[in-house]
Each structure stands twice: as C-alpha cells, then as structure tokens.
Description:
single chain
Amino acid sequence: MNPIHEKKSCCGGHNRSAEAEVKPSSGAKYFCPMCPGVESEKPSDCPKCGMGLERNPLIPDDGEDHEIRALTRKFWIATALTLPVFFLAIAHMIPGVHLQKDITKWIEFILTIPVVFWAGGMFFTKAWVSLKTWNLNMFTLIATGVGAAFIHSSIAVLAPGLFPESFKEHGEVGLYFEASAVITVLVLLGQLLEAKARARTGEAIQALMGLAAKTAHRLRDGNEEDVPIDEIKKGDLLRVRSGEKVPLDGTITEGGGNIDESMITGEPMPVMKKEGDPVIGATLNQNGSFVMRAVKIGSDTLLSQIVRMVAEAQRSRAPIQKIADTAAGLFVPIVVAAAIITFIIWSLFGPTPAMAFALVNAVSVLIIACPCALGLATPMSIMVGIGKAAGMGILVKNAGAIELTEKVTHLVTDKTGTLTAGKPRVTDALAVPGIDSAYLIQLAASVEVASGHPLARAIVAAAVDQKLLFVTDFASTTAGGVTGRVDGVTVRIGKSAFLSDNGITIPSDLETHAAVLRENAKTVVWIALGNEVAGILAIADPIKETSAAAIRSLHDMGLKIIMCTGDNRATAEAVARELGIDEVHAEVMPQDKIDLVRKLRKQGAVVAMAGDGINDAPALAAADVGIAMGAGSDVAIESASITLVKGDLMAIAKTIHLSSATMRNIRQNLFFAFIYNAVGVPIAAGVLYPFFGILLSPMIAGAAMSFSSVSVIMNALRLKTSVSRKRIIHADGVSRVPAL
C-alpha cells in the first residue's frame, strides 16, 4: 500500500475555500492542511504542494519527532560545511588575504556537494514532485536556482575550457558555490522552524485532554471504589468530594456544592449546584460533597466536544499560501522557458563556440532569476515584523496572522479577563449609621478569610491594609453564607435570604441600594452583627482601564465589536453599555462562540477573536485571527495565533497597524525581487547583444542577484524604525502615533 493516499475531492488542487474543512479519517495519523484528501500513516511530504504533512492531534503521539531531528542534524552539518565555503568565496575581498584559486575552488566544490545533495536533496525531490503534478511552488524555484548555480560552478571547476574568454576574469570563471550552499542552509532553517511550529499544533489539544479527571469514586452495592474514568458506564453513581474535579457529565442525585465552571463559561463566580442539577466533567467542586449519576461518557462529554471543536477548527483553517509561492506558479515556467529559448537561439545563431555561449547565457538567466530575493521577500519582513511586535508585548505565532490582521472587519471578544480584569473586587461598601465602612470591610474579611469562595477572596483582598480580627466558631452554609463570632458577637455574611432565614430583617433603604447595585452588574453581599444588618458590600469584575479607549480606537478603524460571553445577560449588557460595544451575545457555551465566528466568516467577514479562557479555545482556533490574553489559560494561548503579553486590548489596534506596515513592506520587497528579474532576465538572455554587443556574464548576473537580495533585506529592516501615520487614542484620551 502506498504510504500516501489521496481521496477524490472536487477541490482538485490546493486552492480551496477558507471554509472547506480538511478532516483526516479516523485512522489517518498525518494529513495535509492545504490539500483535501491527502493522508498518510507516516510523516512525509504532500505530493501536491510539497508541504510536510501535519500530525492528527486527536491521535496520541509517540513522543518522537524524527523530522525535527533529521532537519536539525542536516542544518548544523550543512552550516558547518557552508561557513568555509562562504569564507573562501569572499576571501579575495579581505585585505592581506591571498589564496590559491586552483586549490580553493576544489575545496568549495567538495564541501558544497554534501550541502546541496545530502542536506538539500529533499528540495530537489519536492521540486520534482511539483513538476510532475504541475503545482509549482518555492521548492521549484529553489531547486532551479541552487541547481543552476551549482551546475555552472561545477562545470567551471571540471571543464573551464567550455567557457569563452569573455566570461572569465583574470583567467577564471566565476563560481557560485557559496550561493548554492547558503541558499540551502537558509531554506533548511526555514523548514526546521516550520517543522517545530507544526509539532506544536497539538499542544492545545493535549492541554485540554489533561484537564479531565483520571479516576472517579464509584458507588456500587454500598461500597465505594476508585476506578479509571474509562471504566465508568452510563448510569454509574459517583461521589465527588470538596476540592475534586467532577469526573464526567451527569446529574446530582444527593448533596450539592459550589462548582467552579470557569473553564466552560469563563466566569470566575462558582455556581451552586444541588440535587437534580446538571454538572460538567473537569469542572471543580470547590466545597460541599455530592453524589452524581454519570449521563455522558467518553466522546459524548462536553470536554471531549471542546477538544474535537478545537482540533477541527485548527485543521479547517489551512495555512495561508505565501505570496511568493503563488507568484512562483507563473514565474518558474517563464524563467525555465526563457532559459531554454536562450539556449536554443544561441546554439543556432550565436558566435563560435555557439554551444558554450548558449550554455553560459542560459545559466546566466537561471542565476539572475535565483529565488534569493523572492524567497527572502516575505520571510524577512515577517521576521522583522514579528520581532518588532515582540518588543511591543505582542507575540505572533505565524506569518498568516500578520497577513490577515490588517484585513480584520469584526472583533469578537470575551468579557471576563479580556474586557474586564477577571478578578472580582469590592467596589462599594454601604454601612448603616454608626458603623464605619472601613470597619465593615475589616469585619467581613476577618470572617471570610477562612472561606475559599472567590467572593471571600475579593473581600479579604479589600482589607489587605487592615489587621484582621480574631474569629471563633467559623461555619459555612452551602449556597447561603458564612458565620463566625467576633468579640462574642455573631457575624453573618452572605445572601439576603441567608440573613432572613436566621430571623434578621432586611432594611428597605439598603434593599433599594442593593437593587441599584445589581442593575450595574454587581454582586451584593449582606453583613449582620447579632440580629441587625450592619451593611452591604458590592463586588464586581472591574473593566480594565484601557478597554474603553481600545474600543474607541477599534471603532475609529472601522471594526465592529461583538461581545460573546458565558456571563449572565444583565452583567454583559451593563458592560457593553459602558464600553459602547456594538452587539452582545450572553449566556453562551463554547459551541455558541465557535458557531458565531463561523457564521460571521460565512457572511464574508474577516474575524478576530479575543479571549483568555478554555471556553474560548475553539473560537480562537476557528477565527481568522485568534488573540489570547497573556494571563489567560495555556489552552487559549496555544489555540490563538497572537498573544498579548499584557492582556491589554489596546495592543490589538497596534497589531493591526503593524500588520499593515509589514504587508506593505512585503509588497515592496516582492516588487524589488521581480523588477530585477524583469530587467535582468532579458539582458542575461542576450536581447541587447544584436544592438549593442552587450552580454550579461554569470558573474554580473550573480552580482545582480546578490544586490536584489540586499535590497530586500535593507527594505525589511526599515520596519524596525518605521512609524505608522495612523493615530491611536490612548487610555488618557490623547491621540498619539504608535511607534512601530
């Protein structure tokens, strides 16, 4: 059986819709993200586009990556062999250094052979496949340029008499071994970095899988036993104690507890669950104990569905075809045809020796069309742009993100941890007459310090500068509140119903204040001393200081801002009103977020998704540009293509400006790369010879090739100091030009 097989696809080639999904069959371990239907059981290259096949993240890895090991070995050995070749090639330009050309040319020849044919042999294989399938790409250009330079130089060493005297300098024909070796090493480095990037594509999946509980306490015939999750059947009764993960999706049959469901909803507030309520596998039972009945197991659980959504979203978004690859599809046949026509015309009508002139001019065409500049045009700008972004606290994973960010039309953003701080804190303290608000916070913090509830942590944090009071007889009531004694007086803290159940009357004026606070998306905590209400504390997740300014900047750039959150609708709408957000989707699940992203993309929008939680991971992977907050979960960061180190939404506007500057620089580089070929190839072919007697020797062709590469590199380096003319409104309301 052929290790690579292709399933019939209506798409044919690798140019396909961004919405088309590439899904490997269940048994396929490797697949091509560019070409539908190309699958393999072993790591190899796609027979259509030449890309290395990606591993299916849903299939367990054996822990070894032979491709990375092989590329690493080839890169370092090729580099060690190339350095002396490069030194010998430029030695004549170093003052005081005089080497024997008769000896050095043989050293260059011998050292270059393993670099080109052993380390770079794969490029010739990929080029041959591209010719057979007529999917011309950068490998076609690389093999053409490297091969032309090496063959020309080899003939100059082995049979220099074939070259006419007019193509010699000081009796020697120009050698281009260093060009062959250096190009091979640079492309090897690019392949190595790409292979390492591909190896990381499954890290988000592995991180998600690691969230699941490994064992469960199963109740059977009155006995409790610890069993692996894989042995649990539907209908089994499982006990979940305080501090443990919920093993699977199910329903509580006895007891209850406060469940941290932030991995699903993104919200830090725990949810009280009681008998009859559903619970979700991998969520955390913060306190309380309960018995649950397993309802969904294996691939049916919500966590497994999230894993599958992330995997499919990563696969469905094919890597963006590089501009240079697209251009190569037209450029390669034109250059090869020009070289062949040049050889035929010169061999028929050229001066004696006609064959020598024909060969040299054909080689000059191929050398001047060497893909150095074309190959450097995109990666050089991307490399400088990504480096510049890193200095701004913006970590970019791949070139595709840089290319797409400038085209973003819609920003879908999570609320908690993205627009807000994701850390609840006390915002208001209202005490009854005769009690100081600072004492109210001190009293509440002294009792709550023994609780593990997120609201309790917010109250304790509010009293960080105060000395806590001594508390005795602490007790916690599930879904109600906490109780303690301070100086012999009973202190109760919790919901209004908790106080009412203990015979404490709620004052109407405080209830009115509490209602206003709730309308502003704040949680109200009641405090009682003895049998009297002492006051209330309001706790909220504060909006980040920069969020409002960031939203204004993004609106000025023409983006539509959509909030998509698992939080309740009242809280979400309150935040949206304050920030001026265009559209709100509240109380959503991970599937709803990814559905929204896909719907927008289907309507033609270019979507950026910003989030920080596990529940955001599928949407981050499905969006054109996924943007993770630096303080977010590892799963979110792995699923996104851009990470904002400071978690500041303002950095999105900076990223868009940087993307525009980088793409503009790439287009300039491609212009430089092609203009040299547009002028140089006809001259190298000899079109000026009948009129002016001018021929372009391979040495001049090599110099022009080098100059075009230098031009591309120098232009790319301008990104380090370039400044966008567009302005960004900062948090202080001042419009400034961002330094890019």
